Model the fold of this input.
Amino acid sequence: MKHRIAAVVVLCVVAGLIVTFKVHDLVARSYMREAELQAATTLRLAVSALDGHLKRYEALPALTADDEIIEVLIRDPGNEALRLEANRYLKAVNTLLKSSDIYIMTLDGLTIAASNYDTAVSFVGENFSYRPYFQEAARGEHSRFFAVGTTSAKRGYYFSSPIVMAGKILGVIVFKVDLDLIEASWAGGDDRIFVSDPEGIIFMTGSDEWRYAAILPLTPDRIARTQASRRYADAKLRELPLTYGAFAGHRTMLIAGAGGGAAREYLYVSQSMPGAGWTVNVLMDTTSVRWQAQTMMAAVFLAFCLLGFGLAIVLQRRARLAERMQLQAEAQNELERRVAERTADLARVNSRIRQEVAERRLTERRLRQTQADLVQAGKLAGLGQMSAALSHELNQPLAAAKTYAETTGLLIDRGRVEEAADNLRRISGLIDRMASISRHLRNFARKPNEKLGAVSVEEVIRDTMEIVSARLKTAQAELCIDIAPSLPRVMAGAVRLQQVLVNIVTNAADMVEELEDRRIDLAAAVIGERVVLSVRDRGPGVPAAIRERIFDPFFTTKGVGKGLGLGLSISYNIVKDFGGSLSVSDHPQGGAVFAIELTIADASLMEAAE
Done:
């Protein structure tokens, strides 16, 4: 049977591995298709935004070139009055159209008017004959070009048109458009978007570390063409550390992190913009896709493992059932044999019954005495556990008293009597504190022989706190006390009621010691004609199966060596002696609730207690 169970488990694990790898590939391909569709949507939106932004300015250079002020200036470029008028006009147009800069050049590339004429980075007097957009417009073409301004050091897209008079080209007008707002909208998203030029150099991106990096090798020819047009001014070009690969049937790009950091894999899609001479790329991180595929793979493998273990458990239970039935048959035969033997012995046993009855009565008396001793032993054992934690509470005032005593001697020698007297008062307070702790431990350890009377619940709770505070600190538990105002006295014994509360609060601390929520609620209020003290923890609660037995002697759910199982039994009988009741229930929000119901003391007893 063991070999059959092992074979079933191994078979399920092997089948799970085979199916898992198949599922991983199918899931990865499905997720990658969804990711590609999402990236393609992002790409279309990015291309549409760029294309729409550029088309707003595409026809403006040609329209502005026909303006009378421009035509008059280009005929007489040396006229200062005309230059000033043209500068102001271009500035007004630039402000209205919200472009970056507008400027006019003669056929030798010299700028004679610009919208930024009155700024520190004025283009007036600058020569841009090396720019492709000037060269193409000087030949009569409408040109478009992206570059970093050599004067302003700002990136922009340039639209240029020739200024034609009577069929003759006399100059060039240029519009520079700012694309920073569109680029800024790409930063911080889940997808990486960047735009590269024909040489593969990234000039627009939401990731600053990728700007002016090349996704194609920077060959001498590419570098020479870029430097000839001074497209990126003095920017330092570099190659982006990437390698191309594939995952789940889709092409991927593996890019190393900044400063040699871990490489990240991206699914990428791209679309060219022929009119602008650009390529727009969208990268989507494949980490989530791989994680989802691996999660699905792990889930499938786990399902097969659970199936194998489930079959193994079924087979094992069937084997145990057959074995149990065989053992029951053998036990029945043995029982019948023993019954026959016992029947023969009954005659002899009857003669010894009276002697055994007497012996049992003696044994019962000894058992009661032993149980009483065990109760006190369990109480002293709990006291010993608490005293280990309370030793820290006594060591602290002892150390402080020693320090104050040494300091007092020095203060007296120096004549600082008032400070020495203050130290003596502090020492006296520390001694009172230690005496209070010792008194409560002594009262708790003493065998109770007190009579019932009117007891103050507030005082009992205060004394209880003196004993359990160290245990609560060890468990890092928080005791929240809620006592109703003007609470009447109850019929009880102060020390025994304190013993009940110590036992229940200590049990609650045991229940919450390993939990995140370690709050314990201790409340006292008048309900009906009785005073009810309730202690609630945030532990697992009391299962219904053991709720009826929890107050039985020697019944405990704690591990070996952690309790005698007498605490709740003692507490139950103590409260019963008071004429009250002790019960346990589960709180609707979790945890167990122990409720102590006590009778309100008569008015005559209350006056005597006062």
